[in-house]
Amino acid sequence: MSGQLEKWLVRRLLDSVGGPPVAIELWSGERVHVLPQGSEPIAVVQLKDRRALFELMQKPEKSFGELFTEGRLNVEGDLVATLEAIDVAIQKAIRESGPVARLMRKAMEKRPRVNSLAGSQENIHSHYDLGNEFYGLWLDRDYMQYTCGYYPHESVTLEEAQIAKLELVCRKLDLKPGERVVEAGSGWGGLARYMARHYGASVRSYNISKEQVAYARERAEREGLGNLVEYVEDDYRNISGSYDIFVSVGMLEHVGLANYPTLGSVIDRCLKDRGRGFVHSIGRNVSRPMNEWIESYIFPGAYPPTLKEMMDIFEPFEFVIMDVENLRSHYARTLTHWLDRFERNVDRVREMFDDSFVQAWRLYLSGSISAFTQGQLQLFQVLFQRQGADILPITRDRMLMAPAPAAGG
Amino acid sequence: MSGQLEKWLVRRLLDSVGGPPVAIELWSGERVHVLPQGSEPIAVVQLKDRRALFELMQKPEKSFGELFTEGRLNVEGDLVATLEAIDVAIQKAIRESGPVARLMRKAMEKRPRVNSLAGSQENIHSHYDLGNEFYGLWLDRDYMQYTCGYYPHESVTLEEAQIAKLELVCRKLDLKPGERVVEAGSGWGGLARYMARHYGASVRSYNISKEQVAYARERAEREGLGNLVEYVEDDYRNISGSYDIFVSVGMLEHVGLANYPTLGSVIDRCLKDRGRGFVHSIGRNVSRPMNEWIESYIFPGAYPPTLKEMMDIFEPFEFVIMDVENLRSHYARTLTHWLDRFERNVDRVREMFDDSFVQAWRLYLSGSISAFTQGQLQLFQVLFQRQGADILPITRDRMLMAPAPAAGG
Predict the structure, then answer these.
(1) Which domains, from first to last, does chain A contain?
(2) Are B405 and A388 within 8 A, CB to CB?
(3) For site-directed labelling of A350, which of A132, A178, A250, B12 has its Cα 20 to 30 A away?
(4) Contact status, residue B304 vs residue B377, Cβ threshold 8 Å
(5) In A, which residues are within 8 Å of B314 by CB distance?
(6) How far apart are CA B81 and CA B43, in angstroms?
């Protein structure tokens, strides 16, 4: 049995996140919401014990994930829709709060950990070495892309969207046969294989995840691309050689703000005089650390930068930004496909790990869909070249991945 | 007769700007260059008196323009090619200099003046109120665009390029019939008329140049667009009302870094919840003041920002950057067309003003061609929307201004 105090606390909690259209069900079975009379909640968040409420009050962002993972908080209703509704309410509350409240919020947010060479290795292992079989259950079959796909049409499949993304990257770079490419962060080696197979490029790709490198090497050999692609198990800071193109898809999130000038100097060192480059990364419209729960349990050391922050890679070395595209809606679709496949294989995932892993991964994918849909997270593709190197075509015609629509106006 | 000292000084001067492939001819008729034996200079820079050399040594950037304007420095050879060759040499020298030399160079560069409301008016008048007839001699006939055009093909005329630019802006914004647009900086009113005529939009456009506003109003009335466009003679800081779209083409250069948060707050104030916006501006890849001569004589108070600096408009108000395109090569082409028309009408310009005006304008247009070709100046088009406003299409298909090329790869 829960008393008046608990119900008052729940109302305060709901008010503090902008009064989202959800009810909270206490361990006693009593339900509380702060909606106007006549409105129905779209979901019920069940708290299984009294402590859960107090944890949630103290650190809402982090505790929600912890409690959900431990099975002490359950969502009755569609998880993605519930998280989106909560996000919308919070964003509205922030917008309507004064500048002082916003500053306090900022001050409360802690910064992510520093990425030293050794620390980076540890951070990356915990996520990317979960096993190739696990990722194979829900990523695209052909290229194992654990990054945002590109959807030229509504009806595109995950496999098609990832191939379209790889093709888009090559077209943006205006990649030519025989060119030498260096890649920072290989994933499972998909982009390097695509560039070699479809463009005849020769690619050297750096990655610090042992499992991914082993997979990438084996697959390139099997597909007869071993003479064109080389996977190096090493940190991006140790890149050597001289290249026409620098490319990095989905690594910057793990680099850390403090290392951006270093990354810039690596690009500057390895790029030829008429070289060009491309960086694809999750980002922000406002400077803010990663969600605390995700940073603690899913992506230690991760930080999505704003465009302003990203410029610390390029401006000190006089690189010229030619093109920036924000693909955040494409990431929401990609994640929706991933979540769908994850759920279809959830029994196998539970066998491989356990219940709490399933819950954690479910929340991470669902929360990310919400963040990309609501616009708190961005996906920036940045194309650049050296000052004076006028090597890229002056229009975007080459980038078009679908028939042109009828002329507007 | 000039002595050994002068010739030694000329060699030092040439060395200090990276040894460009030009000869300097002294008032005595003697020629000096620092090219290797067997190399021929592509142009001869004639100095008409001894003082010219000393002025050039003290303040090369500013004095070159002053001496050229006064007829005390003459370029025998193609002016654009000469300026490009000098730019290339200087850039190479900077690249090859150490970080200390680069820092000293930075410290020596002075900042542009502050743009108060009154100061802005003065700065703008000196340039934009030179007379509509003058600009009519060399800008495009249809829309009097004093900003970068868009060249979908090599063979496009200036008139076609400016119409393509206006169309590109509307397509990027996904402008719909009946939408309300506010424009900061009208020029001669061309974009507002285009949006009204071809998209049925209703546009309120702010401008502080009296002559431009008078021209824009008269022309809109004459073309029967008076019911859809309204030109307000006032500063962008005084914008009022509520709009679907904010647009500004070629005004940011005159706003001044310190006023970027103010500009952001104006956009935030006037844009509806699901609003979107567009800013088109000359920019830089590296933070650096305007060329000193241009800042002193052509564009007082002008400052081209880097992308990082531009983000101070958007990030404090949580706007989401959706698309950035760098059109610098298109500006080099636009300027080449302008210079060509200017030269064809140079006798009329001389009648309206005088010789030194002709020289100043010739140098300004030629130097700008060089800067956009060499990549010291950029042209950024930035498309943004509010966080949570998912109103823009998720692909760039609508932006394509030419038939798609054959698929790559």
Answers:
(1) 4-108 (3.30.1050), 117-328+371-388 (3.40.50.150)
(2) no
(3) A250
(4) yes
(5) 285
(6) 9
Both structure tokens of B80: 């654009």
Rounded CA-CA distance A329/A336 in Å is 11
User: In angstroms, how far is CA A129 from the centroid of its own chain?
Assistant: 17
Q: Which of residues 304-333 of A touch B (CB under 8 A)?
A: 306-308, 311-312, 314-315, 318-330
Residue-wise pLDDT for B207-235, tens only, equals: 999 999 999 999 999 999 999 999 999 99
Residues B400, A397: C-beta atoms closer than 8 Å: yes
Q: Rounded to an integer, what distance in angstroms lies between the CA atom of residue A399 and that of residue A392?
A: 12
Q: At A279, phi and psi to the nearest 5?
A: -130, 130
Q: Is B286 on the interface with A (CB under 8 A)?
A: yes
Which residues partner with B207 through β-bridges?
B233
Which residues in chain A (124-143) have CB-CB distances under 8 A to chain B?
Answer: none
Burial class (CB in 10 A: 0-12, 13-18, 19+), B272: middle
Q: Per residue in A356-403, pLDDT tens?
A: 999 999 999 999 999 999 999 999 999 999 987 788 999 999 998 865
Q: Kindly report the backbone phi and psi dihedral angles of residue B401, in degrees, each rounded to the nearest multiple of 5, phi listed first.
A: -105, 10
Structure-token pair, residue A70: 């431990």
Q: What is the pTM of this model?
A: 0.91
Of B312, B388, B396, the CB nearest to A396: B396
ipTM, 2 dp = 0.91
